[in-house]
Design a protein that fits this description.
Elements (H helix, E strand, L loop, with lengths): L2 H14 L2 H8 L3 H15 L4 E3 L4 E3 L1 H24 L8 E7 L1 H8 L3 H7 L3 E7 L13 E6 L6 E9 L3 E3 L1 H7 L12 E5 L7 E5 L5 E5 L1 E6 L2 H9 L9 H10 L3 E3 L8 E8 L6 H13 L5 H4 L1
Parallel strand pairs: 3-4, 3-5, 8-11
Antiparallel strand pairs: 1-2, 5-13, 6-13, 7-12, 9-10
Helix pairs in contact: 1-2, 1-3, 1-4, 2-3
Amino acid sequence: MDRLRAFEVFASVVAKGSFTRAAEALETSPANVTRYVSELEAHLGTRLLNRTSRKVSLTESGRALHERCTNILDDVAEAEALASATALRPRGRLRINAPVSFGIRYLANLWPDFMRRYPEIELDVDLIDRVVDMVEEGYDLVVRVSGQGSTAHVARKLAASRNIVCAAPAYLKRHGTPKVPADLARHAAIGYSYAATGDDWHFAGRDGKPEIVRTRAVMHTNNGDTMRAAAIDGHGIIRPAMFMVADDLKAGRLVRILKDHTLPDTDLMAIYPSRRHISAKVRVMVDFLAAAFKGTPPWERT
C-alpha cells in the first residue's frame, strides 16, 4: 500500500464529504478511493470513517489521523517545493495557537490582511490561554505572552508589555490605596490561574533585590478578561499586562497604583519548533507579526 497516497485519498474524502466527490477531485474512480481507505483501515486495525448512504463522518481514530496526515501532506508539499527549481511559495495549513484575550484584541484584525497577502495559506487559529505542547498538539506556531521564553523551541520577540498593578476607583475609595507592595497583603486580589508565580507578586526592589508579596486572592480565573471584569466591578486588585487594560486606564475604569514599584515585563513572542527547518508558511507569518508589532506596540500608544 502506498501510504502517502492513502493519506491523500483519506484527507480528500474528509474534505469533500463523500467517496464520489473525492474520486472526482483526485481524478480516479470511487472504487479506487474505497480501496485505499479500506487498506488504510486494515493496516491501522481501526475504522477511520463512519459511512452511511448520505454522509461520511470521522471516528475518534479518524479525527486523530486526519489532523496528523494533513500536516504530513503539507510538509510533503513544502519539501517538494524546496527541492524544485521554482521559487518556494508559502502554502498549506498553518496551525497557530494564541492566548484568548490577546488574540481577540490584537491578532483578530491582522488575519484578513495576512490572508489577502498569502491566499495559498490556510489559517487554523486556536485561542487557548494555557501553555500548549506545540509539537505534541500539532501547532506550527505559538504566539505566547510570557516572561519566560522557551528553551525547547525557537522564540522571536515581537514586543513587550509592562505588567502593572491596578484597581477600580470604587474599590480604592472603599479600601484605600496601597502605598507600598507590602500593603497588598491586606487587600483583596484577583489571581490569574496560569501566572508562573501564583499568588506571589514579584516587584523589583529599590535596593536591587526582588520584593515578593503573597496576595490574598478572593477569586482565581484562567482568563484575563474575566479577571479584568471582576476588577472593574470593584472586587479586588489585579496585576495585568498593559495590553489587557490600556483602554480601561484611559477611560478611568481602572486606576494604576504602585507606579514607583516595577514588575517584570511580559514579552510577546512567536515560537516555533527548532527541530526542523522553518517552513515558508511559518517564516512569512513570523515576519508578518514582527512587522505588525514593530515600534511602539498599540497598547502603549494609549
